[in-house]
Amino acid sequence: MAGEMLLDVQNLTVQFRGDAGWTSAVENVSFQVGERECLGLVGESGSGKSVTALSILGLHARRTARIPSGVIAYRGQDILRLPTRALRKLRGGEIAMVFQDPMSTLNPVLTIADQITETLILHQSLSAAAARQQAQRLLDMVRIPDAARRLDEYPHRLSGGMRQRVVIAMAIACRPKLLIADEPTTALDVTIQAQILELLRDLQDELGMSVLLISHDLGVIAEFAHRVMVMYAGRTVETAPVRALFERPVHPYTIGLLAAAPRLELDTDRLPTIAGSIPDPASIVPGCRYSPRCDVALESCRNLPPAMGSAEPGHLARCPPRLAALGFAA
Amino acid sequence: MTLHPLLRRLVRAIPIILIVAVLTFMLMHLLPGDPAAVIAGSDASVEAVDRIRVQLGLDKPVVTQLVLWFVRLAHGDLGTSLVLDQTVLSAVMERLPVTASLSAVALAITVPFGVAFGVLAAYFRGTWIDQGVMMLALLGVSVPSFWIAILSVILFSVTLGWLPSSGYVPMDQGVGQWLAALIQPASVLALFQIGFLARMTRSAMLDVLDQDFIRTARAKGVSEWRTILKHGFRNTLIPVVTVTGIILSLLIGGSVIIEQVFALPGIGRLVVQGILARDYPLVQGVMLLFGITFVVLNLLVDVLYTMVDPRVRNE
What we know:
The structure holds 2 protein chains of 2 kinds. Chain A contains 12 helices and 12 strands. Chain A is α/β, with parallel strands linked by helices. Chain A has an 8-stranded mixed β-sheet with strand order 6-7-8-3-9-10-12-11, with helices on both faces. In chain A, strands 2-1-4-5 form a 4-stranded antiparallel β-sheet, with helices on one face. The radius of gyration of chain A is 21 Å and the shape is globular. The two termini of chain A are 23 Å apart. By secondary structure, chain B is mainly alpha-helical. Chain B has 2 domains: 5-74, no CATH class; 90-308, MetI-like (MetI-like fold, Orthogonal Bundle), CATH 1.10.3720.10. In chain B, 78% of the residues lie in helices and 0% in strands. In chain B, helix 5 (88-123) packs across helix 8, helix 5 packs antiparallel against helix 10 and helix 10 packs antiparallel against helix 12. The relative contact order of chain B is 0.15. The A-B interface holds A 57, 59, 63, 88-93, 96-97, 99, 101, 104-110, 118-119, 122-123, 154, 156-157, 167, 170 and B 125-126, 211-213, 215-223, 230-231, 234-235, 237, 308-311, 314.
């Protein structure tokens, strides 16, 4: 684990308004991100990764979402209790976000320069001319060729990869301390994915940022993250340093995920899968949420909510039977 | 042959205008009633009526009349009114400023109010503000304009005496008087359209506010109002411009009724007079001009698109 804690999330619960009242999309999730650290957040779609990320910037619609409990401490300040104005200063200034689909995250009627300078003018009170110069430097930084000319273009003239570079340039404009990257490469071509990932890693080093990287792609996580948190149906099921997770996974879900990741050295026609799908938040079993899909589930798993247990320092898993079988006291 | 896209649209509009002309011609001739009898007066003899009919060329077969009308049109001649002692063109030109002023003032009232109400309703979606605005919009759309016109005259002209109840003052006799004469009819005319525009703006805005780039703007730390106005509103301009084009057409159409109620000597009144007197050339001429106006309006909307949407500009 690297350095001081920049972000400390404790017992975060996020609920959404549904037909049958409020249902929890994220429940009692806790994690930390240290200075210059990259935490990977892994899980299937619907596991609550993005919901967690959006909570950090307070980007849920007040009408349909609420956070009944939890603390999101950024440098010791609870973001959830910040007044709007202070929260806006954090957004884009201290904490920035890169979203999944660069085709829809840029405003189609504003030029690249408009969209990048907006952040600079807002948070650093730069003059329009200075902001424009800075925007050009940022485009250079994210390796967009011919930056001066690109500034006055509209997003639809750029390819997906170029747009994601613009989104990244916007995000790093004010040298944020924490970058939240929500599936930053998922919507891109495979060849572009590697470039964007490399760019993100270089920028992290260069700017000394912490990164919260959200992905369902274990390959991306393995390459980039220092620590990993695995989420399932709104709960943390395992959290560990990246090597420990890949080499000594504890939770059956993590093991299933790792087995389902395509590997070249295995010469098979079919990829292993985890049978079934993630449960709807409204119809969740009382015990372990993974138990309906788990190969090794016991009767007790279905009825008793499992507690987080420790396997080794910094490696926790929410599966008492497996922990016991591996010889760790649950 | 490659034409400028706008020019190409203009060329494509020609058959539409011709179809409008033919339809108007046929509709007029399908109406019962005889312009010769109207002109000759109620106690004219049959011979006198026949004489007038021959004079006007109305004894010829309908198809011949249509062909003759088109031949004259090709020479730039809209013909002469049967009842007014005027050419159709001069009759229209004389009344055009009234209708143009009325529509322009009505549009100038409609757009800011309609857009503002729509944006407000979208921003306060689901609250009493939204419901209130939508209720008023519904009221504006459902209540017939002549009725509102009458109520308005009772209140503002009769009871309060603030505004003239009828008549028109040309702009060169003073902008203040011109506006005073028009503000009431234009407001009544606008009321319906404000509701329509507010509803369209609201739904366009709600669509845009769900887009990812709005979330991006919020994540950048942009304030809520700025997000709505800078990032949201600019993207709703495309549907709003379309609707505004339609609204201007509706305003011109709606002026027919309003000009009657407020005794404004505009084209709307002219057309009503023409229809009642079976003044074929007059009605045909005005309808043709209406058709051309709508085509030009649509073209204008297309030009505006290229100004508000960079994606259209580059095509």
